[in-house]
Design a protein that fits this description.
Blueprint: H1 3-16, H2 21-28, H3 32-44, E1 48-51, E2 57-60, H4 62-79, H5 82-107, E3 108-111, E4 114-117, H6 123-150, H7 155-169, H8 174-177, H9 183-198
Antiparallel strand pairs: 1-2, 3-4
Length: 203
């Protein structure tokens, strides 16, 4: 474990919100045992807190949110990456409405002139939507590559987006828009990370 891993865990919680240990570890790309150790250290420092129970998990304190903002700003300035990340954010936001439309198309579909929940009983329809996701992903890959070139931690999103799309195309359909590890969920976290990195409040 390293100090950078400590900051990674803190920042993951900033981007995904309240979450259990396996989800934090998956988003951070670290072993659960290491993440748990970091979370305990962060809790002792007053930066994170844990809610017990079936629906409990880890989350940032106000002090933790402020500390993550400080560390993230320092990282951005040390890398001289502000302009590059701002450019990446602008390009991401061009793609974001298309992603939201595709998620809607995946969850709902036209049936006899009306819109109904997509029960995935029409493989031809699902295939068309999946191909549109793949096309979007190819364009998003360029943005992700440029972001990770200036801040390597953004590379983790590319790996997770690819994994989610591959699982969906292999038949695990929930990995497109209906699970905490879905393409949509990872995309949302990337959006949140860009906002946090640039210090832009979510409207």
């Amino acid at each position: 474990m390293t100090g950078s891993d400590d900051s990674t865990v803190l920042h993951v919680l900033r981007c995904i919100g309240h979450a259990d240990l396996p989800r934090v570890a998956d988003a951070a790309g670290l072993a659960e045992a290491d993440v748990e150790s970091h979370l305990i250290d962060l809790a002792v420092a007053g930066l994170v807190t844990r809610t017990p129970g079936e629906f409990g998990g880890w989350g940032l304190t106000e002090a933790g949110r402020a500390e993550d903002a400080r560390r993230t700003a320092r990282e951005l300035d040390a890398a001289g990456a502000r302009d590059a990340v701002a450019s990446g954010y602008e390009r991401f936001m061009v793609l974001n409405p298309e992603l939201l439309d595709l998620c809607s198309a995946w969850q709902m579909r036209p049936v006899e002139g009306a819109v109904a929940l997509n029960d995935h009983s029409d493989p031809a329809y699902d295939s068309r939507v999946l191909e549109r996701f793949a096309d979007l992903d190819r364009r998003a890959e360029v943005v992700g590559r440029d972001l990770s070139a200036v801040l390597p931690r953004f590379g983790r999103y590319r790996a997770r987006l690819t994994a989610a799309l591959d699982r969906a195309r292999a038949g695990a359909l929930e990995h497109l828009a209906d699970s905490t590890t879905s393409y949509h969920a990872v995309w949302f976290q990337l959006h949140e990370d860009l906002l946090a990195t640039l210090g832009i409040p979510r409207l």
